[in-house]
Design brief:
The complex is a heterodimer of chains A (about 160) and B (about 775). Helices cover about 35% and strands about 15% of the residues of chain A. Chain A has helices at about 25-30, 90-95, 105-120, 125-130, 140-159, and strands at about 5-10, 15-20, 50-55, 55-60, 75. The chains are: A alpha+beta (about 160), B alpha+beta (about 775).
Amino acid sequence: MSKIHVTTTVNGDEMEFLCDPRETLLDVLRDRLNLTGAKEGCGTGDCGACSVTMNGRLVCSCLVLGAEAEGAEIATVEGIAQGDRLHPLQRKFIEHAALQCGICTPGILVAAKALLEKHPDPTEEQVRFWLAGNLCRCTGYDKIIRAVMDAAAEMREAA
Amino acid sequence: MSLDQPEPTFVGGTVGKSVAKPDNLEKVQGRAEYIADLYRPGMLHGAILASPHPHARIRGYDLTEAMQAPGVVAIVTGDDVGEGRMGAFIKDEHAIAKGKVLYVGEPVAAVAARTEEEARHACRLIKVDYEELPPVLSPEDGLAEDAPILHEHLADYIKVFDAGSEGNLCSRTELSEGDVDAAWAECDVIVEDEYTTQAQAHVSMEPCGALADVDATGRVTLWSANQSVFRVQANVCESLGLPMSKLRSLTPRVGAGFGNKMEPHIQPITVALAMKAKRPVKLILTREEDFEMVRARHPYRVRMKTGAKSDGTLVARECEVLVDCGAFADDSPGVLGYSLLMCGGPYRIPNMKATGRLVYTNKLRFGAFRGFGNPQVLFAGEQQIDQIGEKLGLDPFAIRRKNMLGEGDQWFVGPRIGSNGLGQCLDAVERASRGPRADGARRNFGLSVTAHISGLLGTGAIVRMLEDGTISLNTGATDIGQGSDTVLAQICAEELKLPFDQVAVASPDTDGSPYNWGTTASRVTYTTGRAVKAAAKKVVDQAMDHAAEMLECDVEDLELREGGRIGRRGSNTDVTFAQISGRAHWAVGGPLVGSETLVFDEPTHDPKRAIALGLPFPRIGVFSFAALGVDVDVDDTSGQVTVHEAWSAADVGRAINPRLVEVQLHGGFVQGLGYSLYEEMVWDGARLANPSLMDYKVPTARDVPDAIHTFIIEDPDPTGPFGAKGAGEIGLNAAPGAIANAVANATGARHAQLPLTGERVLAGMLNSAKART
């Protein structure tokens, strides 16, 4: 099977890779680009652990083909912090103990960031609906919701 | 203490403070390394061929085509593993199916190839010649006279306790005290029912995986998602016939466990592949395989009968359980024994009888899952307490207070109860949940209490003072995300009066860590914490001896000061840990190392008060207590249950890190909520029908209460480190009982079957309406 040459931008860096036509974006990120932040929790788009944004749209990278990344702008958990400076969401997740094992965390952070970019002042209900596609088995979600609300408030103040 | 209030401050110390988990810093940046994130030079990928049959003899394999497939380096089948069998209680399991397959999904062969895709492709080319046998699909069928036998050589297997195994009976346990049969005559009220509970999947967000490498001498290094590097080592070595010194077991970050990763999953197969391929092999299960291959929570049938006097005093309880074991014993004998030990709940019941049978069936093994048999019996027991209260006009809080165990009481069969904050837990839930709730015809409150042990088996700690006076702590306890590295470092720092960040925690490694049975049974904070505190104390004592010589005084005149200094009482002169450690390293005495190992050794059974047969845990632990209240709403037309608010109070002795205790209570409750309302593994004949997160529903952020209030009760245990007891499981246990009680209060109908799906609850409402008219 001949491979496809893909040029794309990940977290602002231009990258190119060869991939099989059937290879998912998640496998490309993890195995070809060494970006192992996105996790495979199910491979069927049900758990959200592999969430990334593609041209600003939140997607499960296990349901996107690597070849579809051609010319796209991809953002992953690795691009959320600015160097050593953590994003308010990352700080608030640590502060509120909104993560335990951490497998769902990269996807939840990417999803929450996408939410706050669209709705800087979300209601708690909105946060719960927006994150309903990201399963967490450890925290019971309560602290995740508090952390997102708290980060949103801080970001609004700073804006 | 409510966590909505400010935290108490402990001047100078770290115990009692909600220190943030240091590992969270790498986790929020996507930099934490889990098993799937590890790569080795020359690494191959593994894949597994699963059995399509629930019960069949393997007559042979044809590997010709598979071996010729592109990229294939090695194939492992039952022919490649010896006669070795592994198992925590009964050694009944080979590394991979050998001679027979016992469930649909059981690994039959495994391939190592250049890529995962090539390995999976080759698996499909393996031909296995099966002779199908009739399957056993329920414990009742397994006990039938003419039932097909799963383990023909059961009598020859090694067993670590008196299991009473016979035919398909894997183990049985019988516990009794008082005289139940005579006691029923003293009872004014008796309730009795038969309950059934379903299989629940753990669904750690990280599926199971392993990576094995073999060095030039044949020694194996194994990384895996695990709850104990030592159980991994023992199981792989037992099943593959390796000396334990030939296998080093390590851990990357672990994406949660809940019991699923305590005993082996695919580590033995991965090691067998690497040994055959003579190259590193990584094997990661898909979500579907993780559902079908590993383990789940036991389905139970519980017959329970409880009697009380007219004033509400409990007199007698009888409990008989029938437990589906699945194909291998795994932790099941322990689960059976533990659930019977816990079936009386935290009450004084003078006459108790508990019996249970565990039966092999042709399904995947059932095993340890947060709660360990306790939620199943509580679902029955806590409903019966409410029912007795209803009959006698006692509210749920009153009947529980009247009967709860007090300090100095012994638990059923005889274990000592240390501290007991159950009364305070009930007070906290009652106070906070009182008051007006939104109206609704089908809205009501439900209550359940629970106790759970922490203790069990061997553990150790090594505390080393480095040359500059900072500390390395090594315990061998795997942190599966719950934060034990943080809590153990807090205990160590507190004992040494050092800042938290001066204690580094070593990653578990069977080559260098002291033994730790595992991150299981709510035990690490309590049991390993005790070892850490004692080991740190030894380092302090050694440092004191040095300081006495350096300051030319008696040890009695010295004091340990904040920040790693030892000084003379009443004087400003002191020496630092760095000075002491430098002296020890280069001049006098040798480097400072404190180590402690211990095993929980208080007996479970008091032969003077009770009879116990087939007790799998002769030494068990100390007791934590909890109360849980829930406010539920039942939809009139669909029967769907919504939990609006929950109040969870737990006596954990002393919260070393209150916020981490709080997350245990939150996470445990939500896992219990899913178990109570909808999580259910469903079999279509012998095949699991819903092995995906699309078809197996776990709670999402939308499905949980808007508020889960937590209340940490601190009744310090005299044997716990700084008074601490376990907190890992107690938040889940009470969920099914509390929710079932709330649903009964809201609808007038009792439920004896989990989960409480809309369909069942609606049927209950219709029946109770019919009964009224």
